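Hi V.,

You were right to ask for the full record rather than a summary. Here it is.
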Amino acid sequence: MRKLIWAALAVATGLGAATGAEAAVTVIGGGMAEECAKAAARGASDERTQEFCTLALETEFLNARDRAGTYVNRGVLQLRRKEWEGAERDFDTAVRIKPDLGESYVNRGAAYIGQARFTESLTQIDRGIALGVEEPHKAYYNRALAHEGLEDAKSAYLDYRQALALAPGWEAPRKELTRFTVTRP
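Predicted structure:
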C-alpha cells in the first residue's frame, strides 16, 4: 500500500523564487523501498540516499506500483539536486512500469520545467491531473509555473488560484498570486 506525499522543489527556470512540487510515493511495510520513500517525503536530496533507493530497486521484490513508486522517489531526490535528465529517466521508467500513476507525469512535468520545456511540461501535468493525484494543488501549482514560462499570465494566475483553492493554507501559491494585478476591461 502506498500513500503519495508531496514536497517542494526549487525550479531554476528564470521564474524568480517560484517553487515547484513533486510527489514522493511512500511505501508501507518495511524494507529499503520504504526507507527511500520516507527520505523523499522528508525532503532528502543527497546522493547517499539516492544510492539507497537504487539498492532497493536492485535487491527488493516489489510489485509494479511499489517499483514505479520507488523510481518516482529516486527521481524526486534528483529533482531536488536539479539533475533534470536523471530524474526524467526515472519518471520515464515509472511510467513504463505503471502508466496510471499520475504522480509520475506531474514529476516528469516538473523535470521539464527545470529544463525550460514548458509546453511538454503542460502535457505531462495535464495527464497526471487527468489520471488523478492525491494532492492536485501541487499539480496546478506546477502547471502555473509552466504557463509562466510560456508567458501566459492569465493561465498561470488561474492555476495559482486553483492551487490555493485546493490547499488554502499553502503559502507558495498565495505568495505567487501577490505578483499579479487583475484588471477588468
